[in-house]
């Protein structure tokens, strides 16, 4: 398996990507193709003790870097020799199995959509993170790729999220819930009302396991495996949850550090606290799939360290090895609304 | 001051309301008028050791009870002799200063809007809880009264939230943020884009202290005093935060209870944990104001115990003593969009 990694994307590039790539090549049995500035990549390899390009690593030269200042929709065209554009072109050309980047989310989404293209019939690609909880986590789809959604997009997210949960979390019959402000079918805005009807129909046809509307509270307490929502609401959900987690971890830190006695108290629960922190450490998951693109594309978070990049490469490998894209392609006819709003660019 | 309390509203009625009323009458120097079934109220008073109606308590007879099964929009009309309808009628007639209920939110909102009426010019009343955080909390407006909002509603929420934060939290120049999926003015759906422009204008005119878009994460970490949003998004925000809090408190409980050694560890941080729990205990705040109604109406949560009802009465007293409604009335001309969508029922 060959995975292309944007060596110039993210706050800690190129060192973190190079570090993650070397670890992945050593331990996962994959080849990693680093797209980016050869000299800078070589300098990082040397820093990590490699005087030559190690086995399992290739360098794909690209002289430009897409930054957060570039226009996300046009960056890949304006910087044709960027690490992102060059890497995605190689994926498109069938010379690799997946692409990973910690660069600008918007630029990656635009470039993947317009260069690699969506799966035929898919209206919008979705960002599909696994949200960690104490009960093991669930798939959130979409968390912000498309703010303004139609019911048909959400129907497609429900199918894609189901396949993603089956193929990557190994769930047999994932429970799909629609994020809403109450459990009753009458709750929500017109988007939720119409989506509820579409998901109910897909459930009755035996295509998805729709359990109805669900509130954020119940989702976080283990009530769902696939949480379907528009990108605006999904993003609000995720950022709020993140804020809560940051607040708690800050509280715990302050609490245990306040005196010698609390520091001793900490020692009694150290194991549990470390397990808890590990569950919620974004570096552990590493990457979020852009589901709906015709080839595997993974977004690593911007502040990724080498370990996070390594984990993002693991996600890319899992996705490339899975039948996720085939599942979506084979069932696309059930994800369309006849005569529905097309909204295709 | 005279405060009417719906003695039949909430999961623990009538005992919890009666308990809260007695405590309030004893300690706050207010008269509490209990609307509801006299025999049941008397039985509760006896249970609490009062053979006669104590000083500061009155009973306002009402033979019916609005339940969660009643249609929220019509309940107050269909049950004309309900504790909610009779109590609100008394408020409307000017025979008391505020009304408190732990009954159905939807029924209370409809009844307050249609019987007591909104402040002239206010498009929608908003549910305006104080969201507790480690940094002291902020006002969320709206948390679910109106799911489908126009930019004008949100402009009005920004003003009303500002006055509420000034009058009840004592803040001089509360920072108003618009809940969104990024800080840049270009972020969000058309609702957020248009609202951002309106709030910017109100800020430039010196009427509110608008700090721009804010994400849920930053809001929870202390970045805002008044968080403005539509009722759908506000409800998603609140329920997600609640879910995170529940998950976290569940984690702490399990962690500290897992062995004798962790139980000893708990003793070292007991004080901090109890302070933390107190901050986030919904019974401490007790009630959420329905801001925009022409007289003070407070919703206590459905599962309120006597202490929560007592605190809801405190909130009602604060609101009745404050100049909140006068502030809104005096500034209503600045909260309208000339030629804007009226959307008045």
Describe the 3D structure.
Chain A has about 350 residues and is α/β, with parallel strands linked by helices. In chain A, about 50% of the residues lie in helices and about 15% in strands. Chain A contains 13 helices and twelve strands. Chain A has helices at about 15-25, 40-45, 75-80, 85-90, 105-115, 150-170, 190-205, 215-225, 230-255, 260-280, 280-285, 305-320, 325-330; strands at about 1-5, 30-35, 55-60, 100, 125-130, 130, 140, 175-180, 210-215, 225-230, 285-290, 295-300. In chain A, strands 3-2-1-4-12-11-5 form a seven-stranded mixed beta sheet, with helices on both faces. Chain A has a five-stranded mixed beta sheet with strand order 6-7-10-8-9, sandwiched between helices. Chains A and B meet through helix 8, helix 9 and helix 10 of A and helix 8, helix 9 and helix 10 of B.
Q: Mind sketching the topology for me?
A:
The structure is a homodimer of 345-residue chains.
Chain A: E1 2-6, H1 15-27, E2 31-36, H2 38-47, E3 57-61, H3 75-78, H4 83-92, E4 98-101, H5 105-116, E5 126-128, E6 130-131, E7 138-141, H6 151-168, E8 175-179, H7 190-204, E9 209-214, H8 216-223, E10 226-228, H9 231-257, H10 260-280, H11 282-285, E11 287-291, E12 297-300, H12 306-321, H13 324-330
Parallel strand pairs in A: 1-2, 1-4, 2-3, 4-12, 7-10, 8-9, 8-10
Antiparallel strand pairs in A: 5-11, 6-7, 11-12
Helix pairs in contact in A: 1-12, 4-5, 6-7, 9-10
């Amino acid at each position: 398996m060959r995975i292309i990694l944007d060596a110039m994307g993210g706050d800690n590039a190129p060192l973190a990507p190079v570090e993650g790539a070397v670890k992945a090549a050593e331990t996962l049995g994959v080849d990693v193709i680093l797209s980016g500035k050869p000299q800078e990549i070589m300098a990082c390899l040397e820093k990590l003790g490699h005087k030559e390009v190690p086995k399992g690593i290739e360098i794909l030269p690209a002289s430009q870097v897409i930054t957060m200042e570039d226009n996300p929709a046009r960056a890949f065209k304006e910087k044709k020799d960027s690490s992102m554009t060059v890497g995605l072109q190689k994926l498109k050309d069938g010379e690799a199995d997946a692409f990973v980047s910690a660069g600008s989310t918007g630029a990656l989404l635009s470039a993947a959509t317009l260069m690699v293209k969506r799966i035929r019939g898919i209206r919008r690609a979705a960002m599909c993170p696994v949200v960690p909880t104490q009960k093991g986590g669930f798939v959130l789809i979409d968390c912000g790729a498309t703010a303004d959604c139609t019911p048909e997009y959400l129907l497609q997210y429900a199918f894609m999220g189901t396949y993603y949960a089956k193929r990557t979390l190994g769930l047999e019959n994932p429970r799909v819930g629609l994020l809403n402000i109450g459990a009753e079918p009458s709750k929500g805005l017109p988007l939720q009302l119409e989506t509820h009807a579409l998901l109910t129909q897909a459930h009755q046809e035996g295509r998805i396991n729709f359990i109805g509307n669900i509130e954020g509270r119940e989702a976080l307490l283990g009530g769902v495996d696939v949480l379907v929502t528009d990108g605006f609401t999904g993003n609000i959900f995720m950022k709020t949850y993140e804020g809560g987690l940051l607040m708690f971890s800050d509280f715990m830190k302050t609490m245990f550090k306040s005196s010698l006695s609390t520091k001793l108290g900490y020692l009694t629960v150290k194991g549990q606290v470390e397990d808890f922190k590990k569950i919620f450490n974004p570096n552990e998951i590493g990457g979020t799939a852009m589901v709906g693109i015709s080839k595997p594309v993974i977004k690593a978070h911007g502040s990724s360290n080498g370990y996070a990049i390594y984990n993002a490469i693991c996600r890319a490998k899992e996705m490339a090895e899975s039948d996720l894209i085939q599942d979506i392609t084979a069932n696309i006819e059930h994800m369309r609304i006849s005569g529905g709003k097309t909204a295709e660019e």
